[in-house]
Amino acid sequence: MGRRLRLEAHLEVDELERRYRAAKEPHERSWWQILWLLAKGQTAAAVAESTGYSRYWIGQLVRRYNAQGPEAMHNRQYTHSHRPALLLSPDQLAELAAAVRGPAPEGEDWLGRTVAAWMSRRLGRPISVYVGWAYLVRLDGKRRKPRPRHVQADAEQQAAFKKTSVRSSRPSPPPSPTPRLSSGRRTSIASA
Questions:
Q1: Full-model pTM
Q2: Higher pLDDT, 85 or 42
Q3: Cα–Cα distance measured from residue 166 to residue 168, given in angstroms and rounded to the nearest whole number
Q4: Is 29 left (phi over 0), alpha (psi -120 to 50) or beta?
Q5: pLDDT-based confidence at 50, cuts 50/70/90?
Q6: Does the structural domain 13-72 have CATH classification 1.10.10?
């Protein structure tokens, strides 16, 4: 016979059932169902058999609920961010945004290395060029150098080029038919 797990009285049985029925996220719905069934008096073994969860996991779930209450019954699978914390405070980020809108130091364009140098001076530690580029992109998208302006030829040179350029007035030949594929010797029905 399975062991009965004791639930702290954070919520009444009716409230556990309501949360189980109202849950939209599948994991959370199952967890509320487990707590509801345990609160109704079922054993961990019976709950494990009806829900498909192991008795060990049911015990872990009960421990979490007893220690932290209903707030612990949220699926935390997607809440752990793998991104590092921002290096600049919101004030420093606003200061960098204002600096990037203005002229770059030493008359050059704002690049990843110039942003990294600015950040290094503010933070007092070396900052990678790649981090500087990431902050530059975050602030105002990719900054590109303007394309060079090519000198266009005068009208006479353009006309001469058009006359001498090789341009066929003949239409291109139609594509050749693709050969038929066969997997063996060709046979005729009439020879049978």
A1: 0.43
A2: 42
A3: 7
A4: alpha
A5: very high
A6: yes
